[in-house]
Each structure stands twice: as structure tokens, then as C-alpha cells.
Amino acid sequence: MSRSNWTAEFDRFRDELDTAVFVVGAILTIIAIGLIAVQPDRASQVLTDTNTFLWSNVGWVYLWAMFLAVMFCLWLLFGPWGRIKLGGEDDEPEFSFFQFFAMLFSAGLSTGLVFFGPSEALFHYDAGMPFVAAEAGSESIIPGAVQYTMLHWGLSPWSAYLLVGVTIAYYVHRRGAPIKPSTIFAPFIGVENLDKWWTKPLDIMIVVLSVGGVAVSLGFVVTQFTTGITYNTGFEFSNPMLLLLTVGLTIGFTISAALGVNRGILRVSTLNVWLFAILLGALFVFGPTAYLFQLGTESVGGYISNFVQMSLYMDTAGDGAWVGAWTIFYWAWWFSFAPMIGIFLTRICRGRTIRQVMFAGLAGTTAASFIWFIVLGGTSMWTEHSGAADILGPVGEHGEEVAAFPLFEAIIPTMEIGGTTLPFGELFAGLYLLLVLTFLITTVDSTTLSLAIFTSQGNENPSTVNRVSWGVMVGLLTSLLLIAGGLQALQDLVVLIGLPIAFVLFICLAGMIIELEKHHPVLLTDRGTKDDTSDENTPSPSVSLSDGGQPPSEE
């Protein structure tokens, strides 16, 4: 970029900036970075103590927030509110359904899928679970292990994302509200008051919490990448190398975000889906195919029949440590990402109905996640239990992040072509490492784009300077957290930042019920009233506040 272009970008950055949100959010983030850098051991201990207090005393808040989000999103998927269009009557979707699905899937859970896909069920198989009455390491515990990964990666996380996303998208595309987290207050204060100074604290809080959530995901992938290199080559990374690598990855996702949705995020998201399908197909074909069909059928049945009980299971008879380390950790992680994915969803969903968005997020992405965990988790447990290969040995030595590499090397056969031996297992292990990086890019660049959007007064195409600024801060925070306490520090941090977002979900739930029942009455008012009928037949064009328009009315 030439000097004149950079000057223009800085001018754009200055003009678009929501000064209070950006400056205060950036200062608080920098303070957090400084505190961790100055006293890493103390910071790690504080995070651990806070995490233990939260899951042991208020863990029920996380569980109820997620469960209610799932119930409401299922109602939106199957109920009459699903036909409401997120936009004006003449608005058409900007992206095809496949493109929309690819971007949503890549942004939502992707880094976690590649990290925990082959390892979570294997860990449950090896250590046991209080909810499942089966002995650790036995064949009978395998379906329960897959069943619980389905709980953690199925309907629930997507419901948190979709509840926040649809709330914001509804007001942005139907009421002309700005794209920012405080838009969730619109049902209570009105769209016309969203630019008041007293809405700023929520936006600032979400900025800081979201930077932490993005740092957690980036930290998991950096750890998986470095540990994978160590496992395959024996090369060890020092702390300065870890810092440089994290900054390098930060540059990668910032460039993708700076290219925008169509040129950057969409292209990498499409590559992700193809890599995902290739790796999944290879393991399914060369792995225990018939066994995976049986395991998947039993696990899905257990998930459906036990969903409510698993969703609200606290292990009251025990110490609750397992639930705190797994379910509450996951729920807090998804909560920390919900505002960012919600903003990103708003950016790409204009012209679609609520039901279409729910279908992509609940049915499409959940189905992909289920298949992924059945194939990777099921194959890793089958490989370990049958003695075909030792997966737990490398996991015990290097960590759960290496589980995929010995798995692919064991399942994908070595072939001889023209007298040359080709180690296809190692090739697919390398492709898996590539998937780790590309999923990381789309996950973090979509959230970095979201940060830039709502620190730029809702500008859907914020300046490169804005995006790069948040990318750098996320990279620095990630590096210092890894140096201070590794993966445990990341997990402790996410439980802390997830609690405030749980209450954001409650606000979204109440606000959307009030708003939709007012204009599309189906719960407390007889259907077919005059207001209901007139609202359904009255187009509500999407008006941008930046164009000087007024929020459209549905009355």
C-alpha cells in the first residue's frame, strides 16, 4: 500500500471512529496485557482461583442461559416467527446459501473443532464421566463419550451465537439500528436512544471481553500448531519464538480481514469447507466405517433422549469439577464469542428469513459438527481400544492437541506407486495442520472485523487501520497468556469473561420475545388480529442510519 493510500486509510479511521468505545476498550485491553506481562505467575493464579469460584458457585447461570437459548432458537426455527425477513421486502441475500453457511461455520466453532475433534471423546473414554455409568477405558463408555461431545458442539453453542446475532440483525435490517452490541437494548429503550452516552459502557465491555475470547481461540490453535511441529520434527519453541509466531499468525488473519468479506473471508472459508470434507472423507473411508455408522446412530439417540438432563447436569452428588472443566468452560467460551459472531452474522445475513438463518446455524452446522466428532472421536477411540495404534501415549507426552497426527498416520495407509513409497498418513496429517491455520484465520478475522465494525459507529466496511489495531492487540494478549500459564490460563480466562455474556443472552431472549410478540403476536395474543395481519403484509425496508434514513416502522 502506497503512502498516499495509508494516509487515506488513517483519515478513514479517524472519521469513522467511535472514539469512546475504541479508546477506552483499547486502553483496558492494553492494561490487561501489561498486568499479565508484569506479573504472569500472579495473573495465572488469580485466573485459576476466579475460575474455581465461578463454576462451583454460579455454574447454574451458564447452564440455564444456554438451555433457554436452545429452546428459543428451536422455537424460531419451527415456529411462525421464523418467516420474518431480516431486511426489506425487496432485499435479496448478498451471498449464496453455501457461501453463507461456509462463512458462518468457519467463523463459529472451527478452531475448536480441529483442536478437540479427535481428542475430547478420547479423553472422556480414558478418564470417565460422572454422567455416564460406564467404566473408563471400557467399550461401553464410547457411545457416552461421543454423546457428550455432541452436547458441547451441537445445538447449544450455535444457539448462543444465533440468539445474539438474530437480535442485532433484526434491529439493524428491519429498524435501521447501528451494528453494535448495545443494539440488544432496543426493545427496552428504542432504536432512537442507541446513540446515547449511557449505551457506551456495554459496547466497551463487549470489546474487552471479545478480545479475550478471540485470544483464547488463537491460543488453542497456536498451541496445536507449535506442538504439532514439535511432535513431528522434535523442534522446541522458546517463548520469544512463540511470541513471533503468534504475531505472524495475527498478521495473516488481519490481512484476510483487511481484504474484506468477499475477497478474504469468503475465499478462505470456502477452502476450509473443502479441506474439512477431504480430511473427514479420508478418515471415514479408511477407518472403521461400519463401526462409525453404529456408533453414530447410538450416540445421536442418546443425545436426543438425554439432551435436557445433560444440559442441566451439575454433578451435585460430586464436587462438580468435571462439569466446571468441560461443560461450563465450553459454555463460557461460546458466550465470549457470541457478540462477535452475532455482529458478523448481521453483516452477512441481510435478505434472509429468521428460519433460514436458524436452519444454517442449527441444522447445517450441527450436522457437520456431529459427523466430524463421530468420525474423528469415534475413530480415535476405536484405534486406541482395539490396539491398532497408541493415541493416548503421544497425547500424554505432548498434550491433547497432537491427537490428530498419530491418528491420521495410523489410519491412512502408506502406498507404493512406481516403486516409490508415499506416506499418505503424514500427508493428511500435514493437511490437518493446514486446516488448523485456515480455520484460525477465518475465525479470528471475522471477529476482528466485528470489533472494527462496532468501534467505527457500525460501519460495515471499517478501515484497515482499525482492523490491524485490534489484530495486534489480540496477538499480544494471546502470546502473554500462553507464556504466563499456557492452555490452563486460557481456559480460566474464558470462564471469567463468559459470565457477563450469559446475562446478555437473558437480555436478548427477553427483548426478542417482547418485540416479536408485540408485532407478530402468537404467544399471549390470539393470532389473526388486525395488527398481526397488517404487519405480515407490510414491507419493512432496511434503512441505513449512515444514509440519513429513519428507522422503518412495523406498526
How would you characterize this protein structure?
With 555 residues, the chain is mostly helical. It has a two-stranded antiparallel ribbon. It has a single domain, classed as Amino acid/polyamine transporter I (Up-down Bundle), CATH 1.20.1740. Residues 528-555 have low confidence and may be disordered. The protein is 74% helix and 1% strand.
The average pLDDT score comes to: 82
What's the CATH class, please?
Mainly Alpha
CATH topology: Amino acid/polyamine transporter I
Percent of sequence in beta strands: under 5%
Give me the Rg, rounded.
23 Å
H/E topology pattern:
HHHHHHHHHHHHHHHHHHHEEHHH
Characterize this entry briefly.
With 555 residues, the protein is mainly α. The chain is 74% helix and 1% strand. It has helices at residues 3-16, 19-38, 40-57, 59-78, 97-108, 110-116, 120-127, 142-153, 155-175, 186-189, 200-233, 239-258, 260-286, 289-305, 307-311, 321-348, 354-386, 392-398, 404-411, 424-454, 464-519, 530-536, and strands at residues 415-417, 420-422.
Name the features.
22 helices; Amino acid/polyamine transporter I; two-stranded antiparallel sheet; disordered C terminus; 555 residues
List the topology elements.
Blueprint (H helix, E strand, L loop, with lengths): L2 H14 L2 H20 L1 H18 L1 H20 L18 H12 L1 H7 L3 H8 L14 H12 L1 H21 L10 H4 L10 H34 L5 H20 L1 H27 L2 H17 L1 H5 L9 H28 L5 H33 L5 H7 L5 H8 L3 E3 L2 E3 L1 H31 L9 H56 L10 H7 L19
Antiparallel strand pairs: 1-2
